[in-house]
Specification:
Chain A: It is found in: Cell membrane. The complex is a heterodimer. Chain A is mainly alpha-helical. Chain A is built from eleven helices and two strands. Chain A has a two-stranded antiparallel ribbon. By secondary structure, chain B is an alpha/beta fold. In chain B, strands 6-7-8-3-9-10-12-11 form an eight-stranded mixed beta sheet, with helices on both faces. A four-stranded antiparallel beta sheet of chain B has the order 2-1-4-5. Classes of the chains: A mainly alpha, B alpha/beta. At the A-B interface, α1, α8 and α9 of A face α2, α4 and α6 of B.
Chain lengths: ~300, ~325
């Protein structure tokens, strides 16, 4: 009867995606995942502990030591690793403070956008009909606007604050989550085990909670990792344009903007936070790509 | 037949799947998956529902259990109409009717443990005792279906196909149902495992007084387990009767063709046995033939078949057949 067993094996093979993550997680943590992970972890540590070590005071000035290049010394002999800006503030402290703001904004935005997107995606994918039609047309319309243009428009209307930046970026970022969630919900809701749960008399909420959402976590995490880079970049762009975080909580975008008139005389004021930003965004990009290949090879083209 | 009220009574059931146009999603037609099916199922008995792929037998099951909406007709469970019952009542009725699915690989949520899967019914329905006692109850159920009771924290993929189907049976039993619909419950399994699972189902029926609606395309399996048999073709029942009547004295040409296709272990012992090979394919259920739905492939078809729909009624012997020219063909059925 080996013939029958083999048949069952081949039938079961395409179902590999149904195996829980915690079981598959054992294999394939290649350098494409851990190198960017180490970089990101370093940024997180710097963002959390950096401002505790090198305090940053947004109103303090030290004009005697203004525009010192990187690796030079102040009058009192202390080393300024990243140099100082036009009012003599330490760029290292400013950059680490900026990392804190940028990453906070990035994570908060993703949580908000992810929440909105998952709710919209589940509602339109699971319940379908007119809810699906309306929500997905709204998403389509939103996608026809360039994201940054929409963000600038909203920012100009509701004004500057960290919270507003999060709101603005979440409004322009939920669509990706909604679409990915909807796709995953559509793929999951016709699975036989969903029917099997329904025949027990389960409510829709129970089915969504136990069958639908667990199937969505992996793709949503992948999208979040891919997205956080562009969210941080968008926040920097908004701040650079003067529509992002206020000067009292300088993100990288604010610092970069501060130095743009000095590019010919003091390149480091803009360049160093710019490099920090670039490395973080690229790391998140590589990490997201690697995670996507790892968890969901079918999504490779997206 | 003067007997007690049937446990399940299906009355002129129709289930139609709409065909929608591509652009405006307007309804442009319908696939009549089930077109006027009626049968009774007595408590404690097993009705075998057979037919080839696309005959609508699974749709009958899915409509009875509420996964599909009936277009018309009634499903009466203990005399109560499922469709007419309110939401809360429907949920309670669902406890009494459970289903075992065809594919044990896709019918169990891969992300939940056996304990969670078996007790899932208790999570969604009230009145199953305190949570603290569930693990012990799950272990009892696992033992009842022949699984190791210590495996309750494992995931479905850690089990073989037959074991998974036992988990599915335990899940259904957890609700203490009266009727279990087995939708091709053993078709995906190895033949040796099939026998084990069928024996388990029979043991459970004997011990718990269960009623089965057993859907399959494997006639030998159906013959083994059923008390009565209904044969479906293109959304209708063409012949219905006790197991021995249908197998030994089939009167519908479709049943005869099906039975003649069963392989026999000693063909030389029945030299008169003929294989009836049907020509052509099953017509599209979106555009079924007029009159008798089987007429396009029937060796006996005549003009009357295109005009008049043959009713399912007792025509010859003791069981119902939906053929105008019902006749016993002695040479087709294999004797067990």
């Amino acid at each position: 009867m080996t013939g029958g067993t083999e048949l069952i094996e081949t039938v079961a093979a395409p179902m590999a995606d149904a195996v829980p993550e915690r079981v598959r997680r054992g294999r394939g943590w290649g350098p494409r995942i851990w190198i960017p992970l180490v970089v990101v972890a370093f940024y997180v540590l710097a963002a959390i502990f950096g401002p505790m070590i090198v305090t940053f005071d947004p109103v303090a000035t030290d004009t005697a030591n203004r525009l010192l290049p990187p690796l030079s010394h102040r009058d009192d002999g202390s080393l300024v690793l990243f140099g100082t800006d036009q009012v003599g503030q330490d760029l290292l402290a400013q950059t680490m403070q900026g990392a804190r703001v940028s990453m906070l904004v990035g994570v908060a935005t993703l949580l908000l956008a992810g929440f909105i997107g998952v709710v919209v995606g589940v509602v339109s994918g699971y319940f379908g009909r007119w809810a699906d039609a309306v929500l997905m047309r709204v998403a389509d319309i939103q996608l026809t606007f360039p994201g940054i243009l929409l963000a600038i428009l909203i920012a100009a209307v509701i004004g500057q604050s960290v919270l507003n930046v999060v709101l603005i970026l979440a409004i322009s970022g939920w669509v990706t989550f909604a679409r990915v969630t909807r796709g995953q919900v559509l793929a999951t809701k016709n699975r036989e085990y969903v029917d099997a749960t329904r025949t027990l008399g389960a409510s829709n909420w129970h089915i969504i909670r136990t069958c639908i959402l667990p199937a969505c976590t992996a793709p949503i995490l992948v999208i979040a990792t891919l997205d956080i880079g562009s969210v941080i970049l968008a926040e920097a762009a908004l701040s650079f344009l003067g529509l992002g975080t206020p000067a009292s909580t300088p993100s990288w975008g604010v610092t970069i903007a501060n130095g743009r008139n000095l590019l010919s005389s003091a390149w480091w004021v803009s360049t160093i936070p710019g490099i920090c930003l670039a490395i973080l965004v690229v790391s998140f990009g590589i990490l997201g790509d690697a995670l996507r290949d790892r968890f969901d090879p079918k999504m490779k083209g997206i | 037949m003067a007997s007690a009220e049937p446990l399940l009574s299906v009355r002129d059931l129709h289930t139609t799947f709409p065909i929608r146009s591509a652009l405006l999603r307007r309804r442009v037609g319908g696939i009549q998956a089930v077109a006027g099916v009626s049968f009774d199922l007595q408590a404690g008995q097993t009705l075998g529902l057979v037919g080839e792929s696309g005959s609508g037998k699974s749709t009958v099951a899915r409509t009875i259990i509420g996964l599909e909406q009936a277009a018309s007709g009634q499903v009466l469970f203990q005399g109560q109409d499922f469709a007419a019952a309110g939401r809360a009542q429907t949920r309670r009725l669902r406890r009494d009717v459970q289903m075992i699915f065809q594919d044990p690989y896709s019918s169990l949520n891969p992300r939940r443990t056996v304990a969670e899967l078996v007790s899932e019914g208790w999570q969604v329905q009230p009145g199953f005792g305190p949570r603290g006692t569930w693990r012990a109850s799950v272990q009892e159920l696992l033992e009842r279906v022949g699984l190791n009771p210590d495996h309750l924290d494992r995931y479905p993929h850690q089990f073989s196909g037959g074991q998974r189907q036992r988990i599915g049976i335990a899940r259904a039993l957890a609700m203490s149902p009266k009727l279990i619909i087995c939708d091709e419950a053993v078709s995906a399994l190895d033949v040796s495992i099939q026998a084990q699972v069928i024996n388990l189902l029979q043991d459970l029926q004997r011990d718990l007084g269960l009623t089965y609606l057993f859907i399959a395309h494997d006639l030998s399996v159906v013959r083994h387990i059923s008390d009565r048999i209904a044969v479906m073709y293109l959304g209708r029942i063409v012949e219905e009767g006790t197991r021995d009547e249908v197998f030994d004295r089939p009167t519908h040409p479709y049943t005869q063709a099906l039975l003649s296709a069963i392989p026999v272990s000693h063909p030389w012992r029945m030299p008169s046995r003929e294989r009836i090979v049907l020509a052509g394919d099953v017509p599209s259920p979106a555009d079924p033939p007029s009159g008798c739905r089987f007429r396009t492939r029937c060796p006996k078809a005549r003009d009357r078949c295109a005009v008049e729909v043959p009713a399912l009624e007792v025509r010859l012997g003791e069981h119902a057949s939906a053929c105008h020219f019902a006749a016993v063909e002695p040479a087709v059925a294999p004797t067990a």
